[in-house]
């Protein structure tokens, strides 16, 4: 009798309830939408064909689906890139010496430059198919997401606390186990906030990614970005308003369906106890906890994930106890060969640029482009300094208050995602009405999207501070400036440096959009390197495109090596927790 009752209880526990039906319908709807959007990406297409973009509001849901699908494909690629190269750069000093300068260069290359190269390549790979331009747009979105996530993850791996490293050594964790049990959990809060920032950053450049104008050819891919581009061309303010509303709805949806559950989930990776503290909540997490079938599906997935992480762990422990460290004789040879390959690659690229591209340029034009780069550098330094003065205190205030962070998160995501070209009508009207200086009053557009890198990283750094340190600071009576000097600024310093580096790279990239403003037939151009690159890219002048990009890379590399890299090293050596 008792056995029958126990069996009936077990069957009842597995029996789906109404919440299982709700979640099943939600998952089914998402899969259907993803399949429909993916199917539309592979439709026939010939170069020169114009895809009609309608400003009717009935097409906005379909455009929103296509844009969101591109962004999440790029996000998945960015996560793979972050885990693979971020780990390699953090753990191998020889790889680090190559990867980090390359990342510095890549994050300074504007989206238009990637598009001018990748469009031709992807169209050749997928002839007579829309998949070519789609892949080019996805790659451009990837370039707006990956560098921020990479640098945030790399910074966390370099600053894993020594006690966690010692604990992993004592438990004899393999490299695979250490990565998933120690390093990824420690980096998870920063990674989630930087992922949210990367999603918002991709919105900032979505118009350039979907409304491709390179080499005197225009390719409009169905999406919110191309919708905004057409609305600006026709000076349709109502359509711009609908686009803003659609963006807000999409951001709120993926915030509730993805990022809010991830933030709740990441609470389990904090080392200190949070009893009595306000914890973040999630509607999706609450819904899943009320289900029966999906609850057990989650348990099965958890067991499977543990099995993958701990695969062959027992056999490796036995080997670790008996094995002695051996240094291979081939290791120095491989290292020297690697440096030689990199050196010859750099020389080959430099020779190609000088011999086949830069040969049509004059010294006078090169010096002129260098002067434009100086103008843009001055703008970026001034604006970035102002942003740090404003957003560091705001980020600390939000990070210390979980309830405020829960409210501010989607708001900050929306403003970070707000494309600069949606403000072009306001900028043009104000400049013409009051006869303002274009070089000054278009400058705030540069920092419009990149300032949020600082805010998101400061919030992530503040929330990652151990509560014990906060209690110590309170017990010692640290107040006002002393509290900032001795506690907060050293505690968030590694995150602040990461945010400043990515904000600088984002600001350089944003100059392509912000230094040349279009509204209908009206064009305002500021003197700067971004406006120069935008003009020569639109006309397909490849030698001058290469000159502008090379000059931008030089400025970014000089700034990074003189300012940010020393600060990064200081953060690693002196401000580890």
Structure notes:
The chain is mainly alpha-helical and 577 residues long. It contains 24 helices and four strands. Residues 317-325 have low confidence and may be disordered.
SSE layout and pairing:
Elements lengths: L1 H13 L3 H23 L19 H32 L1 H16 L2 H15 L5 H28 L3 H9 L4 H30 L1 H5 E4 L2 E4 L3 H10 L3 H30 L16 H7 L3 H17 L3 H10 L7 H28 L5 H37 L2 H16 L6 H11 L3 H4 L2 H20 L3 H9 L4 H35 L1 E4 L2 E4 L3 H11 L2 H33 L3
Antiparallel strand pairs: 1-2, 3-4
What would you say about this model in short?
This protein has 577 residues and is mainly α.
The CATH C-level name of the largest domain is Mainly Alpha
Q: Averaged pLDDT, please?
A: 79
**Which strand order do you get reading across the main beta sheet?**
1-2
Using only CA atoms, what is the Rg? 26 Å
- What is the CATH fold-level name of the largest domain? MetI-like fold
Largest sheet geometry: 2 strands, antiparallel
> Would you count the extended β strands for me?
4
Weakly predicted, low-confidence segments: 317-325
Helix vs. strand class: mainly alpha
- In CATH, the homologous superfamily of the largest domain goes by the name MetI-like
How many individual domains?
Answer: 3
Distance between the termini: 59 Å
Binned, the helix content reads over 70%
- What are the secondary-structure elements, in order, as H or E? HHHHHHHHHEEHHHHHHHHHHHHHEEHH
């Amino acid at each position: 009798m008792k056995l029958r009752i126990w069996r009936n209880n077990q069957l009842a526990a597995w029996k789906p309830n109404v919440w299982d039906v709700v979640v099943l319908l939600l998952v089914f709807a998402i899969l259907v939408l993803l399949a429909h959007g993916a199917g539309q990406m592979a439709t026939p297409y010939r170069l020169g064909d114009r895809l009609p973009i309608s400003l009717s509001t009935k097409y906005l849901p379909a455009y929103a689906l296509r844009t969101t699908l591109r962004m999440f494909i790029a996000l998945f690629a960015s996560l793979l890139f972050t885990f693979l190269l971020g780990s390699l750069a953090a753990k191998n000093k020889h790889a680090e010496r190559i990867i980090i300068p390359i990342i510095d260069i890549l994050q300074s290359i504007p989206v238009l430059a990637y598009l001018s190269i990748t469009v031709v390549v992807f169209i050749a790979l997928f002839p007579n198919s829309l998949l070519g331009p789609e892949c080019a747009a996805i790659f451009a979105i990837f370039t707006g997401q990956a560098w921020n996530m990479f640098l945030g993850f790399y910074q966390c791996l370099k600053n894993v606390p020594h006690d966690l490293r010692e604990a992993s050594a004592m438990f004899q964790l393999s490299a695979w186990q250490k990565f998933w049990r120690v390093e990824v959990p420690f980096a998870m809060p920063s990674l989630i906030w930087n992922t949210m920032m990367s999603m918002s950053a991709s919105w900032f450049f979505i118009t350039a990614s979907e409304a491709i104008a390179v080499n005197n050819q225009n390719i409009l891919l169905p999406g919110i970005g191309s919708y905004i581009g057409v609305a600006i061309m026709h000076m349709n303010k109502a359509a711009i308003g609908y686009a803003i509303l659609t963006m807000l709805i999409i951001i709120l949806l993926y915030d509730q369906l993805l990022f809010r559950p991830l933030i709740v989930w990441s609470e389990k990776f904090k080392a200190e106890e949070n009893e009595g503290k306000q914890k973040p909540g999630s509607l999706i997490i609450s819904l899943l906890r009320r289900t029966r079938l999906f609850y057990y599906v989650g348990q099965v997935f958890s067991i499977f994930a543990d099995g993958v992480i701990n695969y062959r762990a027992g056999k490796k422990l036995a080997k670790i106890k008996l094995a002695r460290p051996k240094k291979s004789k081939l290791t120095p040879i491989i290292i020297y060969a690697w440096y030689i390959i990199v050196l010859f690659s750099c020389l080959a690229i430099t020779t190609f640029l000088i011999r086949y591209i830069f040969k049509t340029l004059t010294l006078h034009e090169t010096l002129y482009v260098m002067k434009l780069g100086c103008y843009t550098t001055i703008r970026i330094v001034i604006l970035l300094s102002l942003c740090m003065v404003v957003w560091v205190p705001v980020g600390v205030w939000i990070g210390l208050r979980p309830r405020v962070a829960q409210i501010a998160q989607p708001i900050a995501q929306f403003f970070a995602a707000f494309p600069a070209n949606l403000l072009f009508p306001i900028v043009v009207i104000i400049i013409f009405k009051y006869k303002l200086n274009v070089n000054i009053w278009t400058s705030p557009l540069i920092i419009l999207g990149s300032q949020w890198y600082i805010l998101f990283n400061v919030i992530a750094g503040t929330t990652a501070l151990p509560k014990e340190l906060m209690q110590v600071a309170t017990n010692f009576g640290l107040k006002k400036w002393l509290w900032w000097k001795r506690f907060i600024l050293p505690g968030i310093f590694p995150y602040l440096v990461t945010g400043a580096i990515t904000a600088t790279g984002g600001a350089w990239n944003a100059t392509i959009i912000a230094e040349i403003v279009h509204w209908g037939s009206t064009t305002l151009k500021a003197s700067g390197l971004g406006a120069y690159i935008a003009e020569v890219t639109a006309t397909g002048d490849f030698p001058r495109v290469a000159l502008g990009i090379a000059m931008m890379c030089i400025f970014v590399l000089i700034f990074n090596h003189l300012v940010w890299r020393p600060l990064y090293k200081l953060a690693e050596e002196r401000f580890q927790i």
